[in-house]
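dumping this here before i forget
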Amino acid sequence: MSPSPLAKDYRLEKMPEVLSAVLAEEIIHFWVSEGALQPEVARARVGEVYAVARHLPSAAIAGVCTIKPIFIDSMQLVFFNYRGFVGKSHRSQQIISHLYLTTYDALNQAYTPGARPPQPVGLFLDIESDWLKQRKGAVWKEGRGLTFIGLKPNGNHIRIAYFEGAILEV
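structure:
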């Protein structure tokens, strides 16, 4: 199942493993100018960028998602920590959903159950959005089985989505 088409004025671009200096600076500027990240945090995170949504008429970055393998101690598993951000003037459920679903689908397709060394078994999300936190379903089927697993002390929701055939080596 692929995500619904992105609005005609937007295009999703999967990023190369190593970003050019120009593209890295463009992404850093986007985060900082939107107030999403401080410059030092943006510089540290830019190497984790997986995909960018662009507004075609202006060629401006509209949204960015990052992934980074993280070990979840309480689960004894490695997931990709997924983060997504859409700029204020482009903010829509469609863009953030498209970034997430496209990223999940690509990583799910690349996942090999039982691979050595073990791969991340899915996506881990720390959900800050008040709008998304209002959704009460335990499992979001349209989110590739994105499942509520708890709350952080700051009230953020924690959700995970396993890849198909995920092998839990605990």
